[in-house]
């Protein structure tokens, strides 16, 4: 009887699907649609605000997706960064700005990452718009030219401020 139980247990374990330790990450950019949005029910929606510099900065958004995948969970990342963006194309600026504002509103959480050498004027605008939302955390290099403005705004509205993205992730995604 004991051997039969062991055999059945081994058999059952061998046919059960393996549960991955890795999370599921879907990254959505402007002009991309999710084929079956029902598949994203239960996903935490995170907007990736911050330095892009017209595509000339480090792709921290891609690195963040890899990090979240390794942490587990289900993540839908709204990433405004586009591989090729043409602001001169008719209607593109309106589309981009409206896409960002809509997805900032739809998100459960906003990660803002402002890098030292960036100007990040749109990020500063988004900080002003969403600092009161209660769903934002900011990583801002202390050498950023407007760091004090960011720090004072975060203090006033209770937004958690970190010196870099790694510190933000360690604290916000324990």
Low-confidence stretches: 2-21
Whole-number radius of gyration?
20 Å
Under CATH, the topology is which? Rossmann fold
- Main β-sheet: number of strands, strand sense, barrel status? 6 strands, parallel
The assigned CATH architecture is: 3-Layer(aba) Sandwich
CATH class: Alpha Beta
Strand numbers in spatial order across the main sheet: 1-3-2-4-5-6
Shape: globular
Please indicate the percent range of residues in DSSP E strands (runs of 2 or more): 15-25%
Report the average pLDDT across residues.
86
Break the fold down into its secondary structure elements and pairings:
Blueprint lengths: L1 H14 L8 E5 L15 E7 L9 H12 L2 E5 L13 H15 L2 E6 L6 H10 L5 E5 L6 H11 L2 E3 L2 H8 L2
Parallel strand pairs: 1-3, 2-3, 2-4, 4-5, 5-6
Descriptive account of the structure:
With 174 residues, this protein is α/β, with parallel strands linked by helices. It has one domain: Rossmann fold (3-Layer(aba) Sandwich), CATH 3.40.50. 40% of the residues lie in helices and 18% in strands. It has helices spanning 2-15, 60-71, 92-106, 121-130, 147-157, 165-172, and strands at 24-28, 44-50, 74-78, 109-114, 136-140, 160-162. Mean pLDDT is 86; it is low at 2-21.
Short description:
The chain has 174 residues and is α/β, with parallel strands linked by helices.
What distinguishing features does this structure have?
Rossmann fold; 6 strands; six-stranded parallel beta sheet; globular; alpha/beta
